[in-house]
Amino acid sequence: MDVGFGLIEAGSVRTKNTTHILVKNILDSFAAGIAYWLFGFALAFGKGNGFVGWTNWALAGLDDSKIAFAVYQIMFASTATTIVAGAVSERCEFIAYLIYSFILTGCIYPVVTHWGWAYDGWLFRGHTFYIDGQAVKVKYEDFGGSSMVHLVGGTSAFVATLFLGPRLGRFQKETGNVIYIKGHSVALCTIGIFVLLFGFMALNAGAQHHISHPGDASVISLAVFNTLVAASVGGFTSLFSHRFGLFGNSWSIHGVINGAFVSMVAICGGCNSMRPWSAAVVGFVASFLMKAFEYLLLKLRIDDPVNAVGIHFGGGTWGALSVALFKYDTGIVFSWNKHAGAILAWQLTGVLSIIAWTGTLSILLFGSLRLMRIFRVSEDVEKKGLDITRHGQHAYPAEAYGYSHLHIMTVGDQGKVSPIDQGYVNKIFVTYEGHELTETKASTIRTIHSVPSIVEMESLDTELSGIQKEHKAKQLKPLLWMNDTIEKR
Question: Which residues cross the membrane (predicted)?
């Protein structure tokens, strides 16, 4: 799951932030491994009351036979944090990420899972409704985590993006136009959805927690098949809606990716208790719900680079409520009676409670980070990208391209010009005070000298404002030295 999230998020950001998003996806698993081990498991599955557990801190006293269950739950916790990482990408300070990842996986998320998945949780224990003079016990159902995992992550992501603000240039203040900032790699996103498809099927299969009991094989096979059906229908629904005028007029690959993604999120809730045709309906509705949230966020001027809110908040909410509609054979679609209505009421109670808990603590968490001024990077850092300024490593170093026919000059401290041996056509790789800056197009070659090996560029389309201000008086003119003859382009 983390590999799939990492690939999609990396492909959805610009090259200058790729390393940053990959580091965060690696650390999601490690942060969950520490925080959930120390605190999370105890709060979620330790013995306690209906609200929270308080035993088995750092897994102390836990029977060895339950360690595998703890590992499985750690991966759920990691997923909740990864959702937020994508939503705040390209402008979130790294130290803020470290803080919220530990708090979300160790404190906020575990309490929710105690409610709905622990045997003494108040949602799991359910509520007794008196229908026609008879007592009917109804409990909350979320088999694979539509609300327990994805709604938690989606709610936290919404609050985080609200406090963080949009990326520079995302919305034009003068015209009100939305500027689409494209990710750098469709290939990574596409590979990511393949990995996630396998991951979701395995995750939903594992939600049974055992395979040796009578009936386990039937439940697991149904959960896996329903996951595949929902993803397939959601992907095609989004594809055709983008092609035939509803959301565009092209066969959009991003439409396929996001449509399948949100459908897998939604089907998690009832993949073990629905017929395949119901899973198809869940996927169909989820793809439209995702787009509705996407447009709503744009209207509100909220920037979500990976549509995490639409996919996980929208898909998670729908997934939990769809259980009450399509559960075989007590859902509203199959049994139009008061019992089915009671199931819907309890599912809705759980969804609203999860949103309220996660939203309130997320406001306190991200609001505090903003007040401490450690939540968002500076404008200068955002322009340069977080890869070099925070990690000292480009995901795609210019010098690694290795075209032998082109030497590239670098502008160093105090305006010193020196050559490097590798580069790539029509670009200049620049270093300044030890930091690699934005890759710069040498797009305005004004004068070609009579000497065929020297090209002097009198002006450059560049973002190197710092260098321009400091060396403006020197009228710095970088030189591009070429081994081969100059070819007009």
Answer: 26-47, 67-88, 95-117, 147-165, 186-207, 219-239, 251-270, 276-297, 309-328, 340-366
pLDDT at 361 exceeding the cut of 50:
yes
The amino acid present at 123, given as its one-letter code, is L
Spatial separation of the C-alpha atoms in residues 105 and 487, rounded to whole Å: 56
Distance of CA 309 to the CA centre of its chain: 9
- Identity of the residue numbered 287: S
| One-letter identity of residue 388 | I
Each residue of 417-429: b (16+ CB within 10 Å) or e?
eeeeebbbeebbb
Kindly tell me if the per-residue pLDDT of 436 is higher than 50.
no
Taking residues 67-84, report their average pLDDT. 94
Tokens standing for residue 469: 């201000």
Residues 6+ apart with CB under 8 A from 342: 129, 131, 136, 138
Cα separation, 29 vs 108, whole angstroms? 16
CA torsion sign, 64 to 65 to 66 to 70? positive
Instruction: Give per-residue pLDDT as tens, 447-473.
Output: 333 333 333 333 333 444 444 444 443
Average the pLDDT over 412-433 and give the result.
43
| CA 43 to the chain's CA centroid | 25
Which of the 8 DSSP states describes residue 310? I
From residue 326, how far is each of 117, 260, 282, 290 by CA, in Å?
21, 20, 9, 20
User: For a pLDDT cut of 90, what percent of the chain falls above it?
Assistant: 76
C-alpha to C-alpha distance for 340 and 327, rounded to whole angstroms: 9
Q: b or e along 438-449 (b: 16 or more beta carbons within 10 Å of the residue's beta carbon)?
A: bbbebeebeeee
pLDDT level of residue 105 (50, 70, 90 thresholds): very high
- The total number of residues written for the chain in this structure: 489
What's the mean per-residue pLDDT of the chain?
85
User: Who's near 297: CB < 8 A, 6+ residues apart?
Assistant: 161, 303, 304, 309, 310
- Separation between Cα atoms, residue 50 and residue 123, nearest integer Å: 8
Alpha-carbon dihedral sign for residues 367, 369, 375, 379: positive
How confident is the model over 408-416, as a mean pLDDT? 50
Q: The pTM is what?
A: 0.83
What angle is formed at CA 173 by the lines to CA 171 and CA 179, rounded to 5 degrees?
Answer: 25
Task: Tell me the DSSP string of 331-343.
Answer: STTT--SHHHHHH
C-alpha span between 310 and 289 (Å, rounded): 7
Question: What are the start-end ranges of the H helices in 118-185?
Answer: 122-125, 152-164
